Amino acid sequence: MKYETVIGLEIHAQVLTHSKIFCGCSTQVGQQANSHTCPVCLGMPGALPVLNRKVVDYTIKTGLAISAAINKFSQFARKNYFYPDLPKGYQISQYEEPIVGEGHIIIDLPDGETKRIGIERIHMEEDAGKSIHGSSIGKPGSSYIDLNRAGTPLMEIVSHPDMRGPEEARAYLEKLKTILRYLEVSDCNMEEGSLRCDVNISLRPAGQEKLGTKAEIKNMNSFRNVGRAIEYEMKRQAQILDEGGTIVQETRLYDPEKNVTVSMRSKEEAHDYRYFPEPDLIPVNLTDDWIDSLKGTLPELPDAKKERFVEQYGIPAYDAGVLCSDKYVANYYEEAVKAHPSNAKAVSNWVMGDVLRVLKERKQDIGEFDIPAAHIGKMVSMIDKKTISGKIAKTVFEYMCEAPKDPEVIVKEKGLVQVVDEGAIREIVQQVIDSNPGPVEQFRGGQEKVLGFLVGQTMKASKGKANPEMVNQLLREMLG
């Protein structure tokens, strides 16, 4: 490998509060433009900000969840720049004194290994408004400003440049999103802009310690685009270096349709923003009691839950990882296992397979899924008791998707009880043997795979109700 890729991510996560960071205006999205505004978030002269305590609490909880240092003293600063959707002409953020210092998270790599990704800081800040270009609403040549988002609370989570490729960046993003959703401090909805990502990427000769010149790719809004943008930028920078050129430090934008990054502006340094302490807000002074009270509210986090699932339920680490990647999927699984604790692995197979498949098809979250978790557990119990076969269970599941009835009720209503009477199955097997002399002779001549065809014919003749194990056993016995 000629070059080593060095990646750091800056994540902007919208904090899940009902009101904005410095005023009482609603943070609800999708409302009429400029309807959730007031003199404070509009930047009117004389309007003074008041800090939303819940933003402070949620940021501290996030810091605790990533084993970070919580700074008892932190201070807001003015970040000065001019843009149409920034009504004050500056953004209230934190600079020299952030509320959260050094922390880390552990990511899982495709080869089964793990890696520690350092987090430099988390600070609180307000979001800007939104510029709407007329071409997107049928009015080319015009631009509009919606300030409903101005003042929405954000956490900016800044990683160290510890990632070495798109796979690691994606794993970091997924892990961080999972933690934020477990904490319920952000909904992390990338489509609505409540989780946005800036990618800092540079290349350096393999083995070199000194970092290369970085480019920043702004406002990525999907995990897939983050990966594609990194791959493109790696190739772009490598080509420049191979041709003897130098990388320019700049801010770039990613065009997903063309799959390219394009130059936006030269990269600003901190001094370009003329940071200075925010005079209208007092510093945030935390006490040990304040921090300790929030420690007690932390939920079981994904890594701890994954480890518990492996130990408590005896399922593979892979299964536990899939289930625990979403807090509510993990909760659903545990409710399903309560209904049939003796086969936790089979329950995990159904949740990871059919349940998640249907959710993906419907584009739903598990909270919108209308089959009670206990019904999944009960259905697996019916398979284990041989009341129904695995194949019949697939049919029962589809019926539950149409109307979430108890699986026992569905089996009775639809006449789906598995046939386990040996005499009845023997009669069906004999009919199949008599009707298929060719395959029978092939099997008796040593062609073992023909048995699968005969099993299928028997299951078809029994309308899927015959016990598959008994069908296999009787076919072998009756064919000699």
Distance between the termini: 61 Å
Mean pLDDT: 92
* Biggest sheet features: 8 strands, mixed
Order of helices and strands: EHEEEEEEEEHEEHEEEEHHHHHHHHHHHH
How are the strands ordered across the major sheet?
Answer: 5-6-9-1-10-11-12-13
The number of strands is: 15
Unreliable runs: none
Question: How many distinct folded domains?
Answer: 3
The tally of helices reads: 15
Shape, per Cα inertia axes:
elongated
User: Structural class of the helix and strand makeup?
Assistant: alpha+beta
**Helix proportion:** 25-40%
What Rg is obtained from the alpha carbons, in whole angstroms?
29 Å
What fraction of residues sit in β-strands? 15-25%
How is this structure best summarized?
The chain has 480 residues and is of the alpha+beta class. The protein has helices spanning 53-65, 166-183, 223-242, 288-295, 302-313, 317-324, 327-339, 344-362, 373-384, 390-402, 407-414, 422-435, 437-444, 450-461, 468-478; strands at residues 3-14, 73-74, 76-80, 90-94, 103-108, 114-126, 130-133, 143-146, 153-159, 195-205, 215-220, 250-255, 260-266, 276-277, 284-285.
